[in-house]
Write a structure and sequence with these properties.
By secondary structure, the protein is α/β, with parallel strands linked by helices. The chain is about 50% helix and about 15% strand. It has helices spanning about 1-20, 45-50, 50-55, 60-70, 105, 135-155, 170-185, 200-215, 225-250, 260-265, 270-280, 315-325, 345-355, 390-395, 400-405, 420-425, 430-450, 460-465, 470-480, 480-490, 495-515, 520-545, and strands at about 30-35, 45, 75-85, 85-90, 120-125, 160-165, 255-260, 280-285, 290, 300-305, 330-335, 360-365, 370-375, 375, 415-420. A 5-stranded parallel beta sheet has the order 7-6-5-11-12, sandwiched between helices. A 4-stranded antiparallel beta sheet has the order 1-2-4-3. Helix 6 (about 135-155) packs across helix 15, helix 7 (about 170-185) packs across helix 9 (about 225-250) and helix 17 runs antiparallel to helix 22. It is flat and about 90 Å long. The two termini are about 35 Å apart. The protein binds one RNA strand through strand 9, strand 10, helix 17, helix 20 and helix 21.
RNA sequence: GCGCCUGUAGCUCAGUUGGAUAGAGCAACGGACUUCUAAUCCGUAGGUCGCAGGUUCGAAUCCUGCCAGGCGUACCA
């Protein structure tokens, strides 16, 4: 529709120029938008206004000239008008809308997909929580956002890979091993102080018990380091397996689980450091090795190998991101918790230093989640071990409610997640509001089938009955879905889909209360069934992008 | 101190990349179930878009400076 109007305008402008009414033949791109106020028509353009300078004429005068040269669209356009400083408003013939609905079943599950990816490879790395404890609510938000972004990009033509980076190397993994070992020894009556910097949660005791039943007292006779590393490897594996299960329950499946340790095992980190030393980007100072990230916009240089010879986390991250680009991804997207924002500059710097355009590396910073119960904060301290895990939340409120709520805010905003609200089946909790549309329509369609009403196929005589204000309003809403998808995919903002769906749901519920679908006149019934089936398809389509189910009954 | 994020109705938040009279939900008040699912709908009320300048035909949106809140600022991860 927009394209058609754009074409009409371009023709009109060209014709006006040829006729000598417009001095310049240099026309800017035409932007067509949907006005906020209904009285301003169905579509509007500021075309005349942005041409004012080029044409050296008043915007309203240009608008008059263009309208005078519009031609051959009486079937489409009911009325044009010039408004405000020089907007051209278009009122579409009411009968022109219904046939456009055919695009929805014609596109099937692909309705709304705009191919901006053209098969290019993109990687979305998300969650990547350290394997030192179970996922908590904040990770859930990262999972919901990362998965939805991946869905959107895949929907819009990118070849998407989902990756989880496992930090199974370094000090924290030793701390994990140490924590389990101490609990394990305690189970054998060898009590010792449990340091504060060890992991306090009950899951550590569970792991120790498991260790005991598997190994008996074998670890007691091993030397300290070997016992510790045995515990560490065992615990990390079990925790990762748990994380994987929790994510599957949450509806998130990764294509690849990438081990940090593997970067050391195959010499990747060492080779990367060597290469940067050779070209002078890594240098030695005060007994440590530094990366000159400040040359690429970071506020200072960063250590990659400490004075004690141990590499930093940054060292493996440099190698990891080089490796990602070597795998042929055109875009690499990392989803991080907002508390890591200080890390972006150095990561971008390292990418740039590797000779890769840093624009190709993007970071989505997801703000934290405040977990509440009936308005009161729920304690979320990881160290103290008194946290609510993602699994707890999913068990309590359900996967759909959790995923939907995580996507009801722009990720740059902190999110209040209230467990009680998430369980409510009311307008407070928009997931049911949206799902209810799907279930209601399913019910209508079942009823239609029982009554022997033939499936709606979009025949002209049926579509012609979609002529009430409510019909047209709903059709217009459905036709805006591709715009919402495009904006969401381009900006990697899944909440735009969430808001679109809530608005569409509102439009449908309103329709439902004003118009009956199954009425006496068969053409009207079949026309409305066709419309309502399109609503159902778009709801299902959008919910799928968000990773939320579309129930047939509620 | 410096950096990033946020500031819009009593509360929680949108706002189509600079457009016309700034929108939803909740909470408040008043209505609608004999009809395809009331997990719904309709109506009323609610605003100095943090503050002050600037840019232009036009600013919640862009630029500058303040104010407030959150986060970050390690040879931690």
């Amino acid at each position: 529709m927009k394209d058609r109007i754009r074409g009409l305008l371009a023709d009109a402008a060209r014709r006006a120029h040829t006729a000598g009414a417009l001095p310049s033949g240099d026309f800017p791109d035409i932007d067509i938008e949907v006005p906020k106020v209904e009285a301003h028509g169905d579509f509007a353009t500021n075309f005349a206004m942005i041409m004012a300078k080029i044409q050296r004429m008043a915007p309203r005068r240009i608008a008059e000239i263009i309208i005078a040269h519009l031609d051959g669209a009486a079937d489409l356009i009911a009325k044009t008008e010039i408004a405000g400083p020089g907007f051209i408003n278009f009122h579409i013939q009411p009968a022109a809308w219904a046939p456009l609905l055919k695009a929805i079943p014609a596109a099937g599950e692909r309705y709304g997909a705009v191919d901006i990816g053209c098969g290019r490879k993109v990687q979305v790395e998300f969650v990547s929580s350290n394997p030192t404890g179970p996922l908590h609510v904040g990770h859930g938000r990262g999972a919901a956002v990362g998965d939805a972004v991946a869905n959107l990009l895949a929907f819009c033509g990118y070849d998407v890979q989902r990756e989880y980076y496992i930090n199974d190397s370094g000090r924290q993994i030793r701390t994990l091993g140490h924590s389990v070992l101490l609990r394990y020894r305690a189970l054998h009556g060898r009590h010792a102080d449990f340091p504060e910097d060890c992991y306090q949660g009950d899951y550590i005791r569970d792991l120790a018990r498991e260790m005991k039943s598997r190994e008996g007292d074998r670890l007691l006779s091993l030397d300290e380091d070997e016992a510790l590393m045995t515990c560490a490897r065992f615990a990390a594996e079990r925790i990762i397996a748990g994380i994987r299960d929790d994510l599957l329950d949450f509806g998130v499946a990764f294509d690849r689980w990438f081990s940090e340790q593997s970067l050391y095992d195959d010499g990747r980190v060492a080779r990367s450091i060597e290469a940067f030393r050779d070209n002078g980007q890594i240098y030695e100072s005060e007994g440590a090795l530094w990366f000159n990230t400040s040359q690429y916009g970071d506020e200072k240089d960063r250590v990659v190998v400490r004075g004690n010879g141990r590499t930093t986390y940054f060292a493996s991250d440099i190698a990891y991101h080089q490796e990602k680009f070597e795998r042929g991804f055109e875009r690499v997207i990392d989803v991080w918790g907002a508390d890591h924002h200080g890390y972006i500059a150095r990561m971008k710097a390292s990418v740039a230093a590797s000779g890769i355009d840093p624009e190709r590396f993007e970071v989505i910073l997801v703000q934290l989640v405040n977990l509440l119960r009936a308005g009161a904060p729920v304690a979320m301290s990881t160290r103290a071990g008194a946290f609510v895990t993602l699994q707890d939340v999913v068990r309590e409120v359900g996967r759909d409610a959790a995923r939907f709520i995580f996507l009801t805010r722009h990720y740059a905003n902190t999110l209040d997640f209230d467990l009680e609200v998430a369980k409510q089946k009311s307008n407070d909790n928009p997931v049911y509001y949206v799902q209810y549309v799907h279930a209601r329509i399913a019910s209508i369609r079942r009823k239609a089938a029982e009554n022997g009403i033939a499936a709606a196929d979009g025949a002209d005589e049926c579509l012609a009955r979609l002529d009430t204000a409510e019909d047209v309003a709903l059709i217009k809403h459905l036709l805006r879905y591709p715009d919402a998808v495009l904006a969401a995919a381009r900006q990697m903002e899944p909440h735009r889909i969430t808001f679109y769906l809530m608005n569409l749901a509102g439009a449908f519920h309103s329709y439902y209360n004003k118009q009956r679908v199954l009425v006496e006149d068969p053409d009207t019934s079949r026309g409305r069934l066709y419309l309502v089936a399109a609503v159902q398809a778009v709801i299902r389509n959008g919910l799928t992008l968000l990773g939320v189910s579309a129930p047939e009954r509620m």
